[in-house]
Amino acid sequence: MSTHRSKKSVQQLKRQHHVRQFFKSFGLLVLLVVIVGAVFAGIMWKKQATQAQLQQSRLQYEHKKATPGNDTTATNTNWSRTAMDQLKLGDLTKKGQGGARLTQLVTKYGEPAKTKKGSEKGHAIKTVTWTNIDSQQSNAKFTVSVVNGRIYRKQLEHYQLTKRATQISVTNYDNFTLQTTTYQKMTADFGKPDTFEESLIDGTDLIVGHYTTNIEGSDTASIRLAFSNDVLIGKSQVGVE
Fold it and tell me: Which of 8, 93, 183, 235 is the most exposed place for a label (fewest CB within 10 A)?
């Protein structure tokens, strides 16, 4: 009788052991499924996030490419007269706020031929000069002054316009009236000056234009005009007849 009970107890212990092993194995299986599911979910989330980032980068690139002035593929483009005239200036005393960025110009027109550091009105500045100019004059050059990475002055030298609608006579010159004649009127009637310098400082936009072509008079005839905020404030001439 005792032997029979012992065998029965052993069998019960074996069954209990098998049951525990089953639940233990089942628990491990469930845990494994949970872990695999979590890993798979993480992989899918990372894949979706990467795709979203790639899509955003592509859209940003296309937007930048389509935005004027952001063409990062153009290098060593020659400066045209139109590009020089349209180059926006910022005010020196406001650290060039609103002016064109030097980095964008370097991207489009290449590294300048010359760079020089200095100071003006207590601001650290630098001037950079390009010689890749659309001009018949091989020594033409375009210089900009920079504060805080932005342009506040531009200057074109040794440049000659090949066409001018109307020759400038001494009578025309005499009719250029201080505090009355405007730069817009002057350029509308006689075209742009051959060379110029323009700066924006303390809220004053100063343009000094130099006309050297299509002038009635001697071979070396020239006219110099200065405008402050579009209004003529000074003039001089040599050899105009």
Answer: 8
